[in-house]
Amino acid sequence: MNTSHTFVNKSLAALMAAIAVFPVGQALAQGADQRLQALEQRMDRFENKFETLLNLLQQQPNANSFSSLPSAQHSTHAANSSAAPTRLRMGQVYLDVYTLPRTKNGRLPTSTDDVAAGSALVNAGYFGFGAFADAEGTKNLVSYKDAILLSWNGLMKISSAGQHSFVLVADKRSGKYMGNECSSVLFVSNKEVVKLDFEYRNQKNEIKYTSQGKVNLDPGFYDFDLRLICNGNGPNTRETLKMELLVAAPGDRSAKPIPAEMFGIKE
After folding, report:
1. Whole domain around residue 223: which residue ranges?
2. For the chain, give me the number of helices (H) and strands (E)?
């Protein structure tokens, strides 16, 4: 046993013994002044011993101490989860915009080492290609006619443990007879979970494309990055194309849109 703990235990026993050995009969036999003087002396000794005990206890490591905001545990095959930040702003995410040369071989890059040409803070839940055209910090890029890469990123809250199925939906609403090549990918804690490549040629009616990916996650906050790149920045694409991000958590029969309040950023 630790010597300080032994001293604490012995000191506590001594205090209890000191109280017990003050005989009631002896106290009654003594005069009032003598009894008060004896009590005062004993109280002084008790006070000194308690101060010693408190100092010893304060020096001992607290074996039961824990972080008030622990990092979420992650499964063997799960992406690493982020520790819950002390301050969060839920319902908003970052939108970073990259300008890239137009691709001719049909393989669109979903990542780049370039610095973002513009960045904005936007409301979560809407992943339309035209979102950058209205946001401060990115709307000046509307005139760029080559490939545009959008990155919605921040934190995503996961509430249940187990396998999560993420579904990407490209929703091309009705518009002009125009075409484009696009690609979208979802990263969770820097791990690619699902990717969707699609193109539309002279399609005026609404059309949807979907892709699905699965990953094991535990409750916690995860870095997420939803990217969308199109090989051209025309008004038809900005006005009619949007991505939808759905998830089927453990126990869900079907994938559902992720509520905006499940996304956020660190402050």
Report:
1. 88-266
2. 4, 13
Q: Is this prediction's pTM over 0.85?
A: no
User: 162-172 and 241-248: which strand pairing?
Assistant: antiparallel
Q: Angle 3-20/32-59 helices, nearest 10 degrees?
A: 160
Quick one: tokens of 30? 């003594």
Q: What is the pLDDT of residues 223-237, one digit of tens each?
A: 999 999 998 888 888
- 64 inside domain: no
Q: How far apart are CA 227 and CA 127, in angstroms?
A: 9
**CATH code assigned at 232:** 2.60.120
The amino acid sitting at 45 is: R
Residues 14-43: what's their mean pLDDT? 54
Residues 6+ apart with CB under 8 A from 249: 158, 159, 160, 162, 164
Number of domains in the chain: 2
> Would 80 be classed as within a structural domain?
no
Which of helix, strand or coil describes residue 165? Answer: strand
Whether 166 is in a domain gets the answer: yes
Token match 């001594």: residue?
Answer: 14
> Which DSSP category does 90 fall into?
E
**Together in a domain, 153 and 44:** no
What is the per-residue pLDDT across 30-67, written as a single tens digit (0 to 9) for each? 565 666 676 566 666 656 655 655 555 455 444 332 22
Instruction: Let me know whether 118 and 223 are in one domain.
Output: yes
Using alpha carbons only, give the angle 116, 121, 127 rounded to the nearest 5 degrees. Answer: 85
